[in-house]
Specification:
- By secondary structure, the chain is an alpha+beta fold.
- It folds into three domains: about 150 residues, THUMP fold (2-Layer Sandwich), CATH 3.30.2300.10; about 120 residues, Alpha-Beta Plaits, CATH 3.30.70; about 110 residues, Alpha-Beta Plaits (2-Layer Sandwich).
- The strands form two sheets. Strands 5, 6, 7, 8, 9, 10, 11, 12, 13 and 14 form a ten-stranded mixed β-sheet that branches.
- Strand 11 and strand 12 form a beta hairpin.
- It is elongated, with a radius of gyration of 31 Å.
Length: about 400
């Protein structure tokens, strides 16, 4: 140990601060912190000058913490957990790394100590906790010239299910096809192709309650604009970016939002969830399925005896439908019909209940899509058929 101390002093010509000296000896001397380790040595050194850190620790002072408190007050941000990140001059970081490597030491880098010192002080003064796994905010402290502070507010994620009760509403905000969202005469300078969406009818209220900056909607698949979403609803996750208020009464908000949107959309079982959930609901498991109710219209009278052949629909080869070929890769997907039932309405119309894999194109399963979906309802009946009306009545939670 004495040899290591001597080596550190010789390499620095005795110009080293207590923080850096204690840090270099953190594996060999016990102490409450690095300053305490250095003071235990009782060395007759001038600790006011440090050739390793250029006395960057002097910037961790009352002025810095006041900037942090002022920023919190200015943003009026609500949080319980945080971490600290810092930026220092690259030359300082490089000198620190080279010094540690030269002495072959297994000690932490300078930024870790900076973050810990600031974090510990904030824990005590704010009565909040440092949480490296999941934090509400990140305090980014720049110590390169004049100290600066930026607060990164992490998003919140709200999971639920939605029903769409009228046709003509897209799931998410749809930019105007002419101006691409910039605003023009055709869209009434709204920048939108449609006046509202499932996303906007909930997000505007959650954004207002959370004082968030932006919302992003993540759905477990999506239905076409002219399709209803009935039954228990379609799972979704709403991501609220930079929410200043995190503690929301979701039960009251759900009730209020459903009253406002009565007859259009409904949202159920709202609850806070984790970031990972937004990706999970987008990935269909092998057990995932959807159930549809389809009104089928035939070009001419169909043979009722042939309706039983619809039960033979099983493995379906579907090439990317013509109607979405402009935005989806042209490929053949193998999907399965899991169950079929039907009800005769008249000699050219009948209703179908279809249970199928997630991602099965129902409109094309019915029409055949000019041979791109095979086999199809049209094939089985031997007449041209179209899906005149479609409702989703169940989406599996798998």
């Amino acid at each position: 140990m004495n040899e290591l101390i001597e080596k550190i002093i010789n390499e620095t010509n005795g110009k080293i601060c207590k923080h850096c000296l204690g840090r270099m000896l953190s594996k060999t001397i016990e102490g409450d912190d690095n300053v305490d380790r250095a003071e235990k040595l009782n060395l007759n050194l001038n600790f006011d000058e440090c050739i390793i850190c250029d006395n960057v620790f002097d910037k961790i002072n009352d002025d810095l913490f006041q900037k942090i408190y002022d920023k919190i007050d200015f943003l009026e941000v609500q949080f319980d957990s945080f971490v600290v990140g810092s930026r220092i001059d690259k030359k300082i970081q490089l000198k620190d790394e080279e010094f540690i490597e030269k002495l072959n030491l297994d000690v932490e880098g300078i930024k870790k100590e900076i973050n810990r010192i600031i974090g510990k002080k904030l824990e005590n003064s704010l009565n909040k906790e440092v949480n490296f796994e999941k934090q509400d905010v990140i305090f980014n402290v720049d110590l390169r010239k004049e100290s600066k502070v930026r607060i990164q507010i992490n998003p919140i994620f709200i999971e639920g299910k939605y029903n769409k009760l009228i046709r003509g509403i897209p799931q998410t905000k749809w930019p105007c096809s002419k101006c691409k969202g910039k605003g023009c005469e055709e869209c009434g300078f709204t920048g939108k192709q449609y006046p509202c969406s499932v996303e906007e009818l909930i997000s505007e209220h959650i954004l207002k309650a959370s004082k968030g900056y932006q919302a992003k909607f993540h759905g477990a698949g999506r239905e076409d604009i002219d399709v209803l979403m009935l039954g228990s609803g379609r799972p979704f996750v709403l991501e609220i970016k930079e929410p200043k208020i995190r503690k929301l009464d979701l039960k009251s908000l759900e009730k209020y939002i459903n009253e406002i949107n009565k007859g259009k959309t409904q949202y159920h079982n709202l609850k806070f969830t984790n970031r990972s959930r937004k990706a999970e609901i987008k990935v269909s498991s092998p057990d995932a399925y959807k159930v549809y109710k389809a009104l089928v219209k035939c070009e001419s009278k169909y043979d009722e005896d042939k309706l039983d052949t619809l039960n033979e629909l099983n493995e379906i080869q579907q090439r990317t439908p013509i109607r979405v070929s402009h935005r989806r890769a042209d490929k053949v997907r193998i999907k399965h019909v899991l169950d079929v039932s039907y009800k005769v309405i008249d000699d050219t119309t009948f209703e179908m209940i279809i249970k199928g894999d997630g991602g099965l194109y129902i409109k094309e399963l019915i029409s055949g899509d000019e041979g791109r979906s095979n086999p199809s309802v049209a094939d089985k009946l031997g007449v041209k058929t179209v899906c005149e009306q479609l409702d989703v009545i169940e989406v599996s939670d798998k």
